[in-house]
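hey m, so remember when u said the tokens were messed up on ur end? i reran from scratch. heres the input so u can diff it against urs
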Amino acid sequence: MSILSKAKFVVFNPKKNSDALKKKRKQICDGISEQISLAKNPSYRPISYKWTTGVDGEVKKTRVYKKLKPWWYESDNNTLILSIKYRGKPLKLVDDYNGVEVSDEQELITTLEKFKSEFEKGDLDNLLTALQKT
């Protein structure tokens, strides 16, 4: 008796890039968190650490402030235009539109928080999968 006659056959279709999608989702959520902090406090600068070697050869950990650019700007009609960025490029949110118009800083913060919660839930994963195709 051959194994082919006894085996139960199914379609092998593993989940593709689920870890990559989770990494992208986390990266966007971290970026949105930084933008929320920047919107609440304009002098906010995120801190990272790097190892440096001193003149005497001693290796130590030093604090480095990252440059953080806002994902929004003020338009001509005194509203704010917000875009959600991934790796420095704005995401296409709906059709060919990549910006959201908000009236003031408070609405900007609530909009960023809504985007963050939607990305954390996975409801906006279609925006991330569209990145893979291009």
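this time it looks ok to me. The radius of gyration is 22 Å. if urs says something different then somethings off w ur setup not the seq
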